[in-house]
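Translate sequence into C-alpha cells.
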Amino acid sequence: MNSGPNNAALPALSGESLDGLPYGVLPAALRERWRDESIGSVWLRPSDWYHPAVDEIASAILSTSDTSLAAQELGRARGYDGVGIGETIDDLGALYRALGALDPPAAVIRALCEGWADAQAGALAFGTALDPESGLPTRQYLAIRLAETYRDAAIPTQRDLTSRGVGHHLVLVDVAAGDIDPFTRAARSAAVGAAMTSTYGEGHPMATLGGGVFAVLARTDAHAHPPLEALHAEIDRRCELLDLRAVTRMPVRVWIEPLPDTHEQAVRTLERVART
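Result follows.
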C-alpha cells in the first residue's frame, strides 16, 4: 500500500488483502466497489462510467505508484468525455469512500483537476479532433460550429436568408441502453457514427456528445421528417448487421431539439441532453 502523501487519507490496509481478497484481484474488486458507490450516489449515466483510466488509478492507489499521476489521467479522460468538473471530483470521492476514507487528499484532487483542465484546453485548441469510437467530431467541435451559426445569424444579410431565428436545429440520437462493456460500446458508437455520416453526408456538422448520445446541426428550412426516418432506419440496419440490437436502445430515440436564443444556452443544451 502506498504510504506517501497521496494516500495518507486512506485507512490502514494490509498490503496482501482487502476484505479477504488476494492482492492480485484487488484492483478489479476495488473498481467494482467504486463503480457501485459512484453510480449509487453521484454518477449521472452508468453506461459511460468506465474508462481504462479507472483501472490505472485503482491499481495506483493500492500500490506504491504515484496516485497523483493516475488521478491526472482520470481527470483528463473525464474532461475529454464531457463530464463536468463537479461530477468528476465527486466520482473521485466515491473511490476513496469505497476504501473507507472520508475525502481524497488535496494533492490527488489537484492532479485530477489539472488533468480535466488539460482536456478542456485541448478540446478548445483542437476542436476538430475525432472521437476514436464513433469517428465523429467531439462535442467541443459542435460547440464551435454552433458559435459560427449564431454569429452568421446576427449578420443582417445572413439573417434574411434564414426561416426563423438562427435557421438551424439539432437532430439528436440516443442509443444508450444500460451499462455495456467498452468494446461493445465502441462497436455501437462506430455503427451510429457510420449511419449518421452516410445519412447526412457533407455539410452537416455532427458530433458524439458522450453517453450514447449524438447530434447533427441541420437547417430548419429542409423537410425534417424523411431524414429522421432515414437516419433511424440506417442505425437499425447497422446495429442489426453487427448484432448490436441487444445493447442498443430500441426503438432508437431520434428527435429535433430547437436551438435557444444564445450560443451559451445552446452549449448548455448539449450538456443537458448528453448527461441526463
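Note: Residues 60 and 67 are 5 Å apart (CA to CA).
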